[in-house]
């Protein structure tokens, strides 16, 4: 089974060819980061327009790198939510046109299901059930993966997503967009214990997250410094903020591991490429004899290979979407059929 997968939910135009769910034959990603850096964040209208300009080329390149023609593809997989509606529509329309034209089945995929599936690509023996922490630009979920395509969300953020907090704090301390990778890098020069930022707990919901408090604390700290006419140390603020966020993520992950007697734990989403988080969670899992999984950074941030992997398992279950498939900007995990 060979899937041509398309992803355009945010600011990456991506296409990939994936064989039997786990073998990536090509993985083409055209990022718009440079364009959106000008505005300090993703501008939806610009994102949609750039997707339109690039999608055909990206798809052609994915097929070419895989050495295949559309005839040799089994099915077309595409992200249809959640994400920016205008951005999603570009991928969904392209996928429908290609699938219809080549007479191939169409499989719609949930973007977060793709992020979780990214773990399967490089870990051929990993199979459900396992637990996953999804940390991305728009989501922070603790998920029980009961079977392929069967999820239960056991913890979620009450306000900002982890990646969103990284991006907002990065902007506030003058690092610019995209914040996550920049905080990751600058933190290596800073002292994570220099400033104590709050580690929020959600009352009566020990697996839930809240990151608006730590974000405000960083803003207050910076304002305080500016009012006193003092300069703040960017690296120390970045490292201390990153430590506060990773402490909470790892703390809740450990709570889930003990509550649900988890044996295998998989990190997923763009923030999963954060070095401190990967290393911290790996150590914590090893200490309690839990197998730890994490995709390579290229499969953590948005890509179409992960969508191809998720689409393969949906395809195997017999899931097919009609030509009326539409973008669903607020699609819920587990609702993708
Ligand atoms: P979602 O997947 O929730 O729909 P998205 O697709 O926009 O959102 P991803 O591409 O999965 O998000 O991840 C992007 C996020 O990951 C951004 O918030 C970015 O700052 C963050 N990120 C990327 N690399 C790192 C890193 N090394 N450290 C921390 N955060 C990072
Ligand atoms: Mg992105
Ligand atoms: Fe994503």
TrEMBL record:
Substrate binds at residues 134-138, 167, 180, 184, 274. Its EC number is 2.3.1.234. Its cofactor is Fe(2+). Pfam families: TsaD. Its main location: cytoplasm. It comes from the Bacteria. It catalyses: L-threonylcarbamoyladenylate + adenosine(37) in tRNA = N(6)-L-threonylcarbamoyladenosine(37) in tRNA + AMP + H(+). One of its GO terms (biological process) is tRNA threonylcarbamoyladenosine modification. InterPro entries: ATPase_NBD (IPR043129), Gcp-like_dom (IPR000905), KAE1/TsaD (IPR017861), TsaD (IPR022450). Keywords: Acyltransferase, Cytoplasm, Iron, Metal-binding, Transferase, tRNA processing. Gene3D superfamilies: 3.30.420.40. Residues 23-308 form the Gcp-like domain. It is found in: Cytoplasm. SUPFAM superfamilies: Actin-like ATPase domain (SSF53067). Fe cation binds at residues 111, 115, 302. GO terms for molecular function: iron ion binding; tRNA N(6)-L-threonylcarbamoyladenine synthase activity. GO terms for cellular component: cytoplasm. HAMAP family: TsaD. Required for the formation of a threonylcarbamoyl group on adenosine at position 37 (t(6)A37) in tRNAs that read codons beginning with adenine. Is involved in the transfer of the threonylcarbamoyl moiety of threonylcarbamoyl-AMP (TC-AMP) to the N6 group of A37, together with TsaE and TsaB. TsaD likely plays a direct catalytic role in this reaction. Belongs to the KAE1 / TsaD family. This is tRNA N6-adenosine threonylcarbamoyltransferase.
């Amino acid at each position: 089974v060979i899937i041509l997968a398309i992803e355009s939910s945010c600011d990456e135009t991506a296409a990939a060819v994936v064989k039997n769910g786990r073998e990536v034959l090509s993985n083409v990603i055209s990022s718009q980061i440079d364009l959106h850096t000008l505005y300090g964040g993703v501008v939806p209208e610009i994102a949609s327009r750039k997707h339109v300009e690039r999608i055909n080329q990206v798809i052609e390149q994915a097929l070419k790198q895989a050495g295949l023609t559309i005839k040799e593809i089994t099915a077309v997989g595409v992200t249809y939510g959640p994400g920016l509606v205008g951005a999603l529509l570009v991928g969904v329309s392209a996928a429908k046109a290609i699938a219809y034209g080549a007479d191939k089945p169409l499989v719609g995929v949930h973007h977060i299901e793709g992020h979780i599936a990214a773990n399967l690509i490089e870990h051929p023996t990993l199979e459900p059930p396992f637990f996953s922490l999804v940390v991305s630009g728009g989501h922070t979920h603790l998920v029980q993966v009961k079977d392929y395509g069967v999820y239960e969300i056991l913890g979620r953020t009450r306000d900002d997503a982890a990646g969103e907090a990284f991006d907002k704090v990065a902007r506030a301390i003058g690092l610019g967009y995209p914040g996550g990778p920049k905080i990751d890098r600058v933190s290596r020069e800073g002292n994570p214990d220099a400033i104590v930022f709050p580690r929020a707990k959600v009352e009566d919901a020990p697996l839930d997250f809240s990151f608006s408090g730590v974000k405000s604390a960083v803003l207050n700290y910076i304002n305080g410094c500016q009012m006193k006419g003092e300069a703040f140390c960017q690296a120390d603020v970045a490292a201390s903020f990153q430590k506060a966020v990773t402490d909470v993520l790892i703390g809740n992950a450990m709570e889930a591991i003990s509550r649900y007697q988890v044996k295998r734990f998989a990190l997923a989403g763009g923030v999963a490429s954060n070095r401190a988080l990967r290393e911290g969670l790996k150590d914590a899992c090893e200490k309690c004899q839990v197998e730890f999984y994490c995709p390579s950074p290229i499969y953590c941030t948005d890509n179409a290979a992960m969508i191809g992997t998720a689409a393969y398992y949906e395809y195997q279950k017999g899931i097919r979407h009609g030509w009326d498939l539409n973008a669903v900007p607020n699609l819920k995990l587990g609702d993708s059929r």
